[in-house]
Amino acid sequence: MHKVVIVGASLAGLRTAEALRKRGYDGRVWLVGDEAHAPYDRPPLSKQVLTGEWDPTRVFFRQKEGYAPLDLELVLGKRATQLDSRARTVTLNDGTVLDYEGLVIATGAAARWPDVDRSLEGVHVLRSIDDATAIRQAFGKRPRVLVLGAGFIGLEVAASARKLGLEVTIVEADAIPLAAKFDAKIGESVAAMHRAHGADLRCGTRLVALEGAGRVERARLSDGTILEVDLVVAGIGVTPEVDWLRGSGVVLTNGVECDAACATNLPGIVAAGDVCSAPNTLFGETMRVEHWTNAIEQAQLAAATLLGLPAEPNPMGQVPYFWSDQYDIKLQFAGRVSRADELVMVEGDLSARTYVGLFGRAGVLCGVLASNRPGPFIRFRKLVAERAPFQSAIGATAAGGS
Amino acid sequence: MKIVVDFDLCQSHALCTEAAPELFEIRDDGFLYVLNETPPPELQGKAEKAALECPTGAISIQDG
A330 contacts in B (CB within 8 Å)? Predict the structure, then answer.
């Protein structure tokens, strides 16, 4: 193989390029990204970049000279519009046609916007560095902020805005935030934390209209409330970027359908990161995981698979992990709790700043959530990977020392 | 090989302690400690894995 095209120049795409080189691939690599920017790290966007703690340039993975050793052809500011899997070509929006022998689909996901008019100024989603920079600039004018969605991105945006002393309203359609994903008690505790920090969190209602003359001035909610707002940021989830693959023969379900080694149904085509839906052998279900560590794990698998090398997911890498920084709290979560039937707090309680909670399903440890307790967290994460019996995991606390 | 941690970047995700428990430890104070900055050859692969997996890019591996 001499020509690899990687579509998507974010974490998964860059890491796949690095992994190909590390495994000895010395052919050409095109890394194609639709943003004008070189690859950068997204997690700080909703935190350090929004609060202004970081200059946005700190998020770039490599400086310009850092790309020389990778010997990539960085194609930035261009979007893939079509895949012809028979001719083995990718067409870009400026008409460029790239031939490939190996193709990596790493186009990620796009932030959703609710079903309301988006044409007013002052309305944003948060996915890209340009989004973050625009919101950060708007924050400087001391706006009244409306955050749509009390998921992790929405809550981090709210926390960053409150850190700057801005007036913040959060609107969440569900009755309790995070309840569907975790547990109602955890959602209540996170909600209480935000209220204690002065955010106006309104649950069980949704945005129905934005109004204003050119700029957003008012938001109408489904419960009849009218809010005076100057800035709206939606954090209501993402949709995998697969439109360019329609009609290509690549099987699309919830994203790009892959096997556990990140291979698609077509030879020479792999996928990695937010766009990739793959069986998780540890949990026995197919998942599309939108987390940072998943992107780097799948990049390794995708690179190995493309090169015809063994690609075996390791158990630890199959435990979904994410974190969220809000105010002075670092929440860390590992596992899969959508169908958990037990939650036991093994340290602290949900009203405390520090706690560790374990989730069980059918007598097996399936998840751990910790607040400001990284040491114990990581020990339990290991037990999740080992599919430890729930009772013995609870007992492991005392034996675990710190 | 030398392990260098930028403690301004480290946010105690603790993934390195999983990748290379012989080299990294999070103690009760919540901070990261490097147990051996110059790992022996048999641990160098683990050290590289720890650097790759650090969500804040706080770990770098230097020659020498």
Answer: 11-12
B57 CB within 8 Å of a chain A CB:
yes
Question: Angle of helix A390-399 relative to helix A374-385, nearest 10 degrees?
Answer: 150
Neighbouring CB atoms inside 10 A of A361's CB total 18
d(CA A240, CA A255): 5
A residues 328..387 contacting B (CB < 8 A): 330, 332, 372-375, 377-378, 381-382
**Is-contact B10 B64, C-beta < 8 A?**
no
Q: Give dist(CA A121, CA A136) in Å, integer.
A: 15
**0.90 exceeded by pTM:** yes
Give the ipTM.
0.89
Residues of A in contact with B14 (CB under 8 A): 332, 374-375, 377-378
State pLDDT tens for residues A297-346. Answer: 999 999 999 999 999 888 888 999 999 999 999 999 999 988 899 999 99
What Rg, from alpha-carbon coordinates, does chain A have? 22
Residue B30 at interface with chain A, using a CB cutoff of 8 Å? yes
pLDDT tens track for A164-178: 999 999 999 999 999
